[in-house]
Amino acid sequence: MPESNDEDFTRHLMVDKVLGLHTEKKIQRHVKVKAGKSFYDGDEIYWASRLSKGYGEITPSKAKLLKKQKGLCHFCKAKFRNGDLMESHHLKQKAKGGEDSYKNLWFDLVK
């Protein structure tokens, strides 16, 4: 390969690169936060479902269980708060024939 300066080398590397058209880019829509909502207002169900859609660190499965339980601990009925430790448990133990499904899972507050 003959010697070349940096500009020629860069141009050579970019020969196979193709810029995409703007029409080929998928538009990403964003959902606005509901009016009057604040992360600190205590509505953990709303924020859990919102954060599970890729805006936060909560998984969709955890958000689904929180929504099903209306944000309340299955055992003590206390409201889950941001930062609480949660454990998932089976209502009917797997050893006794319980399934590994959403219908059979619940969150409990770790104290």
In words, what does this structure look like?
- It is a single chain.
- The protein is α+β, with helices and mostly antiparallel strands and 111 residues long.
- It has a domain at 33-109.
- 26% of the residues lie in helices and 9% in strands.
- It has helices at 6-13, 44-55, 60-68; strands at residues 86-90, 105-109.
- The protein is extended.
- The relative contact order is 0.12.
- The model has no long low-confidence stretch (mean pLDDT 76).
How do you describe this structure in short?
Helices cover 26% and strands 9% of the residues.
**Percent in strands:** 5-15%
| Overall residue-averaged pLDDT value | 76
Silhouette: extended
Q: Reading side by side through the largest sheet, how are the strands ordered?
A: 1-2
Instruction: State the major sheet.
Output: 2 strands, antiparallel
From the alpha carbons, calculate the radius of gyration and give it in angstroms: 25 Å
Count the DSSP helices. Answer: 3
Secondary-structure element order, N to C: HHHEE
The total of beta strands comes to 2
Please estimate the helix content: 25-40%
| Distance between the ends | 69 Å
In the predicted model, the low-confidence regions spanning at least 5 consecutive residues are: none
Sheet/helix structural class: alpha+beta
